[in-house]
Amino acid sequence: MTERMRAALAGDAGAYRLLLAEAAELLEGYFARRLVAGRRADVDDLVQETLLAIHQRRMTFDPTRPFTVWLHAIARYKLVDYFRRNRQRVTIPIEDADELLSVEHEAATSARLDVDRLLATVPERTRAVIRDVKLDGRSVAETAAARGMSEASVKVTVHRGVRSLAARMGRSNADRGDE
């Protein structure tokens, strides 16, 4: 799948279609195993949300890393968002823990390292506010109170910080293409 993603990033539309079809199959199984039986519509929605996220964030993919790690990281975040929206807690049988931890731990660790590396490029205050709001799920009001800022300042800091990070990612992807 990594080779298909590399080809897709190079402009191969056929490879991209195949990649998305393969990813959809993997995602369907991934979400079906983690949701309550009978939630087929939710599985389909999560697959579509994840495919859309892959499409929107495809330029953040690091071609030197495995595609499936990147895919699982995105899928995991979509699943966490789903559980938060639906206020659900998840339990898994203990015999499934090894499989769950090995794949998801690697993906989560890789994603966390990438996020940490990127966040290290912005000022500490901006990094802390982005972490609070975007990664830890705190509200703007909670972050403002904890950081001694106005809500408007928190919103502006997050917006400018995320915009700065997006610009940095665009530059690094453009730089990578020149190699």
TrEMBL record:
Pfam families given in the database record: Sigma70_r2 (PF04542), Sigma70_r4_2 (PF08281)
Similarity remark: Belongs to the sigma-70 factor family. ECF subfamily.
NCBIfam families: PRK12539.1, sigma70-ECF
UniProt superkingdom: Bacteria
Single GO molecular function: DNA binding
Gene Ontology biological-process annotations: DNA-templated transcription initiation
RNA polymerase sigma factor 70 region 4 type domain: residues covered: 113-165
Swiss-Prot/TrEMBL keywords: DNA-binding, Sigma factor, Transcription, Transcription regulation
Name of the molecule in the record: Sigma-70 family RNA polymerase sigma factor
Family annotation (Gene3D superfamilies): 1.10.1740.10, Winged helix-like DNA-binding domain superfamily/Winged helix DNA-binding domain
Domain RNA polymerase sigma-70 region: 31-87
